[in-house]
Amino acid sequence: MRLDRFVSLMKERGFDGALISPGTNLYYLTGLHIHEAGERPTVLVVSSDGNYRLLAPSLYENVVRNFPATFWRDGENPYEKLAWILAEFKLSSGKLLVEDTMRADWLINIFRVGNRGFEFYPLSSVIRELRMRKDEKEIDYMKHAAKVVDRVFEELLSWDLLGMRESELALKIELAVRELSDGISFEPIVASGENAANPHHAPGNRHLRKGDLVILDYGAKWKGYCSDITRTIALGKPNERLVEIYETVKEAQEKAYRTVREGVKAKDVDAAARGVISAAGYGKYFTHRTGHGLGLDVHEEPYIGPDSEVILENGMTFTIEPGIYVPGLGGVRIEDDVAVIDGRGKRLTRAERELITL
Ligand SMILES: CSCC[C@H](N)C(=O)N1CCC[C@H]1C(=O)O
């Protein structure tokens, strides 16, 4: 059981307990999916003795079944109940791991009511070691999520894109992804023309025109696991500089992919992509890391950046997505999801990478 492995690791690293709020870590460890806890304090308390109990608002009584839980009702003080659980588990001081994304107001109240000399540390510092290596079932789910985005790419090539607003295309992509999967892994990015110079452009009212390069970046979820793909397509003949940029990004992406091996550092994969782009004179226009880990979260460890010392291992899954973004002109990004399998990188997303001109 994942929770047992987590407790062993926590103990090995000298931690006394953990406080885990709803999100992908809670799901990973327990299978509990707490949707929209919002402002209502909801915390899994785990002790290094192997005790665990979820504190949750009473509206989850019918969801949290067969799992040790204490519920609080409106009008009760949840932090008092949390203090009781800590006392029951004999957690009164020591080193506590806390969910990185826990709401600040919960944390402040935990400090006030429950803190009797704890030192707090980010949960990610320990759980990353478990989550970074996916098992076969997790990789199968990711393969399925990757197939969905490949299919949607094929499908969208048949749509009448000229004249469509970015926001309309983003919505159509979202609907197509939802049709084939459990949902989107993030809001699609559709960035056309000069808007493509912004890697995280929010799709807006711009109409797609002849001569545009259009960055399409979207993802699906399957059984909780994410895919994330980017392709850049041309509408009509683009200018020659953009074609040169496209070919440079494609080469950088391929070189980085070929660098993926068990035992190689993540930063070497980044360096491979960055080297190609710098040699072509576009180094200063590659303004982000080469990739990020992918799994239950769309951004997780291992990050594929210039300073990432993580040594790649079988079961690791991440994106490779170099890009070049020239203000006033536009941009190109090509992204695949990759898993390390049998010592080598294997693309999970397989959509066409040659420049498609519609
Ligand atoms: C979760 S929104 C961004 C999704 C996108 N695929 C992505 O991860 N990136 C786009 C630019 C680089 C990269 C990133 O690290 O944010």
From TrEMBL:
Entry keyword Metal-binding: yes
Keywords noted in UniProt: Aminopeptidase, Hydrolase, Metal-binding, Protease
PROSITE patterns, A to Z: PROLINE_PEPTIDASE
Protein name (database record): X-Pro aminopeptidase
Domain Creatinase N-terminal stretches: 2-132
The keyword Glycosyltransferase is annotated on this UniProt entry: no
Family, per entry: Belongs to the peptidase M24B family.
One of the record's GO molecular function terms: metal ion binding
High-level lineage: Archaea, Methanobacteriati, Methanobacteriota, Thermococci, Thermococcales
Classification via SUPFAM superfamilies: Creatinase/aminopeptidase, Creatinase/prolidase N-terminal domain
Domain Peptidase M24: 141-340
Pfam families, A to Z: Creatinase_N, Peptidase_M24
InterPro entries membership: Creatin/AminoP/Spt16_N (IPR029149), Creatinase/aminopeptidase-like (IPR036005), Creatinase_N (IPR000587), Pept_M24 (IPR000994), Peptidase_M24B (IPR050659), Peptidase_M24B_aminopep-P_CS (IPR001131)
